[in-house]
Amino acid sequence: MFSSVKPFEGQQFSALRKQCQQNRTLFEDPVFPAVDQSLFYHGNRIGKVTWKRPKELCEDPHLFVNGISAHDLHQGQLGNCWFVAACSSLASREALWQKVIPDWKDQEWDKQKPESYAGIFHFRFWRFGEWVDVVIDDRLPTANGQLIYCHSNDSNEFWSALVEKAYAKLCVCYDALDGGNTADALVDFTGGISEPMDLLEGKFSQEEEARNQLFERVLKVHNRGGLISCSIRATSQADMEARLDCGLVKGHAYAVTDVRKVRLGTGLLAFFKSEKLSMIRMRNPWGQREWIGAWSDSSEEWKRVSKSEREKIGVTVEDDGEFCIHKIWEEAVMRGSWCRHDDPLTNRSGGCINHKATFLQNPQYVFDVTKAEDEVLICLQQQDKRAQSKDGKGDNIAIGFYIQNIIQIIYVYMYQFYCTYQNNKSIQMSKPLVLMTKGRIKNLVFLSQLTLKSVLLFLNDISASDPYVVISCEGQKVRSLVHKNTQNPDFDVKAVFYRKKPKEPIRVQIYNQNILKDSFMGQATLSGDLSDLQHLHTLRLRDKGNRQNSDLPGLVSVSLTTSDVLTNI
To answer: Domain Calpain catalytic, which positions (predicted)?
Structure first.
């Protein structure tokens, strides 16, 4: 699995440990030394720091005490709750934490072979498309004999402190972890893709159906092994870490440790009534300051749940910071860069859509979606600039891109972009489209954009129908949603076709959804030719084939624009 792991700063764990064992010395990392420069960007802000090895802090140190758990971690004197929350999520998934903490049994302290211990550890993080192996020594920053930063419940358990040190080394210093995004850490722990969801923008508080759909989605992600975190957005610096009346903290990251439907009631009543409550369990990295409203640990609401059900979901009444309120992914990774060149055939820095003469010179990648009713998640990333903050160059730059679908064009401009499409297939990546010149792509003659406005059906034999529309051109299709129980559905379906065969028509077909087999209700065809200057079209529905009397009872209204300049639409 890790054949392509890259050693960070060229440090090979096995070779370094073997050298220390032969010399009977404990490893001292020259790349990340035990000095203030490894802690701070600019000067010491917390007073005297003493670096100590675990053996100097306790008699019997271990990586794990009674296994690894989301309850192990506590945030120290660093604003990295985002990182600690990610560690809590990581600890709940054995297959994932064993990627970050490889061959952990071999790294564990061995009482039977004390001479084998060399004070060296290594951890792995996914960075910009590859796994990086980071070596550290076990000297940890302390004050008054206590760990300053992340630590475990058990004073002799050190996995969290050591993982934090390795991540700080990757980012240049501990200060680099002060403030961040939990999703970024989860990506670095897993090699996966993150997807943000804003509950305010999604209006989930206003619509019960939207909340139900959100819960089902979160439940599916959890059951598939996804890692989830959440937070309440702080709108100002003064708002940061402000505690609300409910006990939650603004600007603070929480790890989601469980998602499930809890059966209410006790005994046979619970079994037969089968009333279930949708619940999400979260944990505060501080290990305290929990939610104090309904369904908090000791609230009256838990009396509605049987003892066996509470035990099954692991409900406790400790102030541990935790509280309640089968799919295989196919992955493809493409690398690219915006490179400036005077030759338009070589230039890969075309600017945004406002620069129409050069826009199509930007890097382009094509993928196909071939299976229906699933999701495609796309993430555009740039290399982490956190390591350059020491030199005042730590800000990410604004990047943007189009997703150009044969059906739709979507444009976004932000630091990172994530989008989800229903109508998934297995993703098939192709080489970049590079055959471009003067705003046109080779072999593409023009493009047409058609927007279906409405359909009017004259059906005397039935009172209503369940119509939907299929728009097609040159083998590409887009299908609308079904409109229930209507003869006059209002559509707002847009299709964009990049066309190679000017004589091929654009076809709009209407179908009626039935239980056994959908029935054809009529079609209209348009040439989409450059000579057609009419924008709005109202067309009579016709039958399939070329029969003379093929008119059917219905009309379709569409708008159509065609251009031979591919950036005009």
So the answer is: 26-323
